[in-house]
């Protein structure tokens, strides 16, 4: 039984989700706009480049690297140690990364920073749904908890090599 001084697990999870949502919404000049979009459509369009950036990955790349590693896409994406959004309708994944200048990531990945926007699902939407396309393939664990860029580059290199090898056979 919980004492008044010990928050329940459900309250902690709700408080953590609220903190993550606030941090994400803070990418906009008017954070309340994000909250309204999450309520109405489950996805908010957030600005990139200030708090965080994103690397857009093709499904083809993610599936190739997962196959090369002998695992599922979601299991492999967890090795990035940060949040990843899946847009199954657009056939893309978005790894959220620290803001930094973009670099050429090859034909299957693109850095999206300042001047770009990304559709971010409501915190807690971790399954595809009929009313919304995007969901968290790997959920954000805490405010500011982003993917490891070095691990992401290795994923892109491994997937690109697997796809090139597949094209040669």
Quick structural overview:
The chain is of the alpha+beta class and 169 residues long.
Q: What layout of secondary structure does this protein have?
A:
Blueprint lengths: L8 H17 L5 H11 L1 E5 L5 E6 H11 L3 H5 L6 E4 L4 E6 L11 E4 L4 E5 L13 E4 L10 H20 L1
Antiparallel strand pairs: 1-6, 2-4, 2-5, 3-4, 3-7
Helix pairs in contact: 1-2, 3-5
**Strand residues, percent:** 15-25%
| Rg computed from alpha carbons, rounded to a whole number of angstroms | 17 Å
Mean pLDDT: 88
Helix content: 25-40%
How far do the termini sit from each other? 61 Å
Query: What would the principal axes of the Cα set say about the shape?
Result: globular
Strand order of the largest sheet: 5-2-4-3-7
Structural class from helices and strands?
alpha+beta
Query: Main β-sheet, in a few words?
Result: 5 strands, antiparallel
Number of helices: 5
Order of helices and strands: HHEEHHEEEEEH
Poorly predicted runs of 5 or more residues: 1-10
Number of strands: 7
How would you describe the overall organization of this protein?
This protein is of the alpha+beta class. The chain has helices at 9-25, 31-41, 59-69, 73-77, 149-168, and strands at 43-47, 53-58, 84-87, 92-97, 109-112, 117-121, 135-138. The strands form 2 sheets. It has a 5-stranded antiparallel sheet with strand order 5-2-4-3-7. Helix 1 packs across helix 2 (31-41) and helix 3 crosses helix 5 (149-168). The longest helix is centred in the last third of the chain and has 20 residues, at 149-168. The protein starts with 8 loop residues before the first helix and ends with a helix. The model is unreliable at 1-10 (pLDDT under 50).
